[in-house]
Amino acid sequence: xxxxxxxxxxxxxxxxxxxxxxxxxxxxxxxxxxxxxxRTCRLIEDGVPPARILLLTFTNRAAREMMGRVDDLVExxxxxxxxxxxxxxxxxxxxxxxxxxxxTPRFSILDREDSTELMGSALADxxxxxxxxxxxxxxxxxxxxxxVINTGHDLEQVLTDxxxxxxxxxxxxxxxxxxxLERKRNADLMDFDDLLLNWLLLLTRFPRxxxxxxxxxxxxxxxxxxxxxxxxxxxxxAMLGPARNVMVVGDDAQSIYAFRGADFENIxxxxxxxxxxxxxxxxxxxxxxPPILELANASIxxxxxxxxKSLRPVRTGGGLPLEVAVxxxxxxxxxxxxxxLALREEGFELEDMAVLYRNHAHSLDLQVExxxxxxxxxxxxxxxxxxxxxxxxxxAHLRFVDNPRYExxxxxxIKLRDGFGPRLAARVWEQLCGAxxxxxx
Length: 441
What we know:
The protein is an alpha/beta fold and 441 residues long. It folds into 4 domains: 3-92 and 195-313, Rossmann fold, CATH 3.40.50; 109-187; 329-372, no CATH class; 385-439, no CATH class. It has helices at residues 3-6, 9-16, 32-45, 60-73, 86-97, 112-126, 138-151, 155-162, 170-186, 192-205, 207-216, 230-239, 265-268, 270-273, 290-300, 329-345, 364-372, 389-402, 407-414, 422-434, 436-439, and strands at 22-26, 53-56, 82-84, 108-109, 189-190, 219-222, 246-250, 278-282, 284-285, 312-313. The strands form 3 sheets. Strands 3-2-6-7-1-8 form a 6-stranded parallel beta sheet, with helices on both faces. The chain has a two-stranded parallel sheet with strand order 4-5. The radius of gyration is 25 Å and the shape is globular.
């Protein structure tokens, strides 16, 4: 492969580096994905077995895209490259080593809604009078629990920062979390946080498993490293064998997930945790026009903590970005609709326009306004397929068949029958648990 013809000098330097700890600071639009793809190709061409490469990305879709591009570039297939999110990689690893941690290889995984329901059951166990006292709702408890697990912060600190009104209930909340853990363990369940926590426990408490995983994965590549949390950064460090062949790619200026535990100090502190690491900078931007980059560079210039970098545009031209202040969500929807119609009058097609918003709720006023004006649109956000109620109803039956100890799945399935509410479902479950047919499952 002629890497010199496919990559710019900064990208080429990353791709051809021999190994060891590597930090690639990749500004927006600088070809980060391309660099990761070609780095993977070069490792395979140099004789690294695909099965010994672990590619960790922010989404499974990103992993599939990267491995598909690698397949297109090298003769040897990448079907044996392990690629995906931290959670999906942890899931696959834990299926193999579940029994070391006290689970069966057929453990079930709680989704967000099931975790909330199980947390509610744990709350009822610990504090039956919870509905009549000042306690966080189960959904908030799940958020607090997840933040504690992913950041390593103690509960008091998390409550102080995120729910100070419940500081006086810290002891009771800790008891609820303990009961939540017991219920998961008794039912052979893991939530999404367990996929990371148990992966790290496997690495730190079981030397044989740690050595096997280090032998399996000789090269680890991590995408979007600025959005990793403390738990994920610890996993990456614990996976490294003597060669310490790890390449992390990211941009401290693009960290946007602190609200759910991401810590941009992971990327800032990477050279301190790995003093012999090589730091690279990708600063040639292929995406944006100069005015956009000038604004971006100026906006981060005075960040107190950062890796200094300056994005340079390849494209020319482009207009200045606009900032429009509006007093209400309704006014915002009207303004956006006006702009869409004005662009259509200039000859642009509606299908070539996109409106981005921070969360799905922000789109509701705009949807009303677009409908009122008969402007056709498609919404690309909202519930995922497996989050739709009727899909979860079907899955509840399948999950209970697969794992008869899965109380949440049983309760959801039986409550679809006429006359079954939460209390009757709980009584039936208690009777089943006392029956010989379920006791030993």
